[in-house]
Design goal:
It is a single chain. The chain is mostly helical and about 425 residues long. The chain has a single domain (about 1-429), classed as Growth Hormone, Chain: A, CATH 1.20.1250. Helices cover about 75% and strands about 0% of the residues. The chain has 15 helices and two strands. A two-stranded antiparallel ribbon has the order 1-2. The longest helix is centred in the last third of the chain and has 34 residues, at about 395-429. The mean pLDDT is about 80. It is found in: Cell membrane; Membrane. Belongs to the major facilitator superfamily. Proton-dependent oligopeptide transporter (POT/PTR) (TC 2.A.17) family. Keywords: Cell membrane, Membrane, Peptide transport, Protein transport, Transmembrane, Transmembrane helix, Transport.
Length: about 425
């Protein structure tokens, strides 16, 4: 558990480093390619059957390096495909988000079955093969990204040297021992997260000081980061308090089969995948609606769906209090609402950050957003989930879940009101 905690913390920290390198040295396209190659290499190392724990640490360190380069810069690269005022930008990010959820559904099934039938090393190797195929698909469409190459970006023109992709692979591999050490000394992860958060706040402050003409837009992005963190504190309950509720109190019997609790985790991914394509087409802004108002109203609608999902779970818990058997159908409906809500949060925030059009900071801001909505939100979600530590099947326990879900829904709906007020205040000013 401590190793997983350290790995999760480092995975969310490194996109800031990857964004900084892409903004100043690599360019987004090179960063994406190098990151994908490193993640493929890391999974190949995991796929090598070994009894030594050292190979596990080495592989995870390489994957962390690759993830830092890939995760934030794939969003920045997509943002470069659109002009500043292109109305298709939000829809493009919705498509990217939906495509990512296709992988989150297919990968656990394919790799999990391979691990079950042939061993974990085959499952990890299959993940590496999948990543390499994805990279080949990306490279086959390189003609669409010619105008986004890093050497053409204004922030890179003053750089005295530009390494090829293989050179940056070697540079990042030289950083792998640092992450290897942090994984071994995994009790450092909490302190590292606190230090990085302070460093990120200092970076945002410096950007505001150096670019006063963008200060208003930067404050909006900071507020979006806070709102996104709140959203993911709620969304991460799916892996903790909501999963416990499903395991103990939901009637999971379907025909002659007990639906595994873990399978419910895929409901929101299916909802995102199903709705993402349609929403990408619908997310075409009307000329009469101001951009700043539109962004905040989308965030408010996402939180409204999240709050509605929690209220539906609370209603389900109330109905199940009589016999301790809550409805599986209502559970799926609530989780689907929460999954649909994601399409109004991260894609909108990513589109807004890339719309800022400030040379040399887009990757860093994207990495900071991922730090806030990933590592910080996960930590806060764990604190919130401690309110539902009761695991015994009893009337008291299910009542506690009902109260918890109602409380989360009420707080979220209250935040929706605040967000709508902020939206109209920002639009009017």
């Amino acid at each position: 558990i401590s190793l997983f905690s350290a790995y999760a913390s480092l995975v969310y920290v490194t996109p800031i480093l990857g964004g900084w390198l892409a903004d100043r040295l690599l360019g987004n396209r090179t960063a994406v390619i190098a990151g994908a190659l490193l993640m493929t290499l890391g999974h190949v190392v995991l796929g090598v059957e070994s009894t030594s724990a050292w190979s596990l640490y080495v592989a995870l360190a390489i994957i962390i390096c690759g993830y830092g380069l890939f995760k934030s810069n794939i969003s920045c690269l997509l943002g470069e495909l659109y002009a500043h005022d292109d109305p298709r930008r939000d829809g493009g990010f919705s498509l990217l988000y939906a495509a990512g959820n296709v992988g989150s559904i297919a990968a656990p099934i394919a790799c999990g079955l391979a691990a079950q039938w042939y061993g974990w090393h085959i499952g990890f190797a299959l993940a590496g093969i999948g990543m390499f195929i994805g990279l080949m698909i990306f490279l086959s469409g390189s003609r669409h990204f010619r105008h986004t190459r890093g050497v053409d970006k204004p922030a890179l023109r003053a750089v005295k040297f530009v390494l090829p992709t293989w050179g940056w692979l070697l540079v990042m591999l030289c950083l792998a021992p640092v992450f290897f050490t942090l994984l071994l000394q995994n009790n450092w992860s909490g302190y590292l997260l606190a230090i990085v958060c302070l460093f990120a706040a200092q970076m945002v402050a410096r950007i505001m000081i150096k670019a006063p003409e963008h200060r208003r837009a930067l404050w909006q992005i900071v507020l979006l980061m806070l709102a996104g963190t709140l959203f993911w504190v709620l969304a991460q309950q799916g892996g903790s308090s909501i999963s416990l509720f499903i395991d103990h109190f939901v009637n999971r019997r379907l025909l002659n089969w007990d639906v595994p609790t873990a399978l419910f985790q895929s409901v929101n991914a299916v909802a995102v995948m199903a709705a993402g394509v349609v929403l990408a087409w619908l997310m075409r802004p009307e000329g009469s609606v101001r951009s700043v108002l539109r962004v905040w109203l989308k965030f408010a609608f996402g939180l409204l769906l999240m709050g509605g999902g929690f209220m539906l779970l609370a209603l389900n818990a109330r109905h199940g209090a009589a016999d301790g058997q809550a409805s599986m159908g209502m559970m799926v409906a609530g989780l689907a609402m929460m999954g649909f809500a994601e399409l109004f949060i991260d894609p909108v925030a990513m589109a807004q950050i890339t719309r800022l059009n400030m040379p040399g900071v887009t990757g860093v801001l994207t990495g900071i957003y991922m730090l806030a909505t990933g590592a910080v939100a996960n930590w806060l979600a764990g604190v919130v989930a401690q309110q539902t530590t009761e695991s015994q099947i009893s009337d008291t326990a299910i009542a506690a879940y009902q109260h918890f879900f109602s409380q989360m829904g009420e707080w979220t709906l209250g935040c929706v009101v605040v967000m709508v007020v902020i939206a109209f205040a920002a639009a009017c000013s």
